[in-house]
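Question: Send over one sample?
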Amino acid sequence: MEPRYAYGDLIALAARVLERAGLPAEPAQAVARGLTEADLLGHSTHGLALLADYVEELDNGTMEREGQPAVMSDHAAVATWDARRLPGVWTTALAVEEASRRAESYGVGAVAIRRSHHIACLAAFLEAPARAGTFILVFSSDPSDSHVAPFGGLTAVMTPNPIAAGIPAAPDPILIDVSTSITTAAMCARTRAAGGRLGGAWVKDCDGRATDDPAAFKEGGSILPIGGLDHGHKGYGLSLMVEALTQGLGGYGRADAPRDWGAGVLVLALSPAAFGGLDGFVRQTGWLAEACRAARVPEGAPRVRLPGEAALGRKRRALTEGIALHAGIADDLGRLAARFELPAPTPLAIPA
């Protein structure tokens, strides 16, 4: 049986590592919670697997340690922050709180973040506000890198540019976290390192041929947008929208030629209570959810699931039985613990 680790132990270790690396307690705790939440939900490429990279960024001075985001503009329901390369998981969590607070007053609230450091797993920001009755959306792009070519082109211009939404519903919120590309750079890197193949022809080589070989992406290729070679104009259009919402509204992006790993972010909060009422909203989302679950499926196939349903199921199991970390992550945590003279993570005892 694979080793499992207690949720609280992993957060405590990650927070102490980040504090020893120079972060104050508040952002260290927020980043530790965000990364561990990603592993709870099963987003293992964007969870604790990133902790060593974040420590390296702190070591190099490319992630800032001290201070708060600077307010660039503030207009009632909306604001723009300069995150000044502070930890992106923390500043995005602050933006979710602030946008949700403004939505309570104005029905909508939005915070655009420029010059953020990497924000990890977008799904990790969704559940709490959605359970509190706020419809939350998070958009992100990285203007310092390029992995995805525009539809019909060979030159990578954009990043996978995820869109995430936490939709209030009963009994659980609907949690959507999807990239506008078929896969991500992190998944390509993990698969290539393991000597494997992707689950489909998700990347293009340098001549524009679709392939399942992740090495093609590293060797001058690009990741395909949603829709692939056939209908990739759809993912391409969504990706352009995300770049406009993040870099455009924040006023900082590719046109400024940034070189550091990071993100442009938009957090948008909507209060259903200010529209047709929260009860009416949940009645509609509940009906739709049940209709999807009840949809006819092929003989012997499992029933239809809602986005986030499997992730929340994994989270419930992990909170009870412990988190199963993807291969190599526990070793990375052990190395970080040794560097900072902290106890290494200890697996939970397996019941007899």
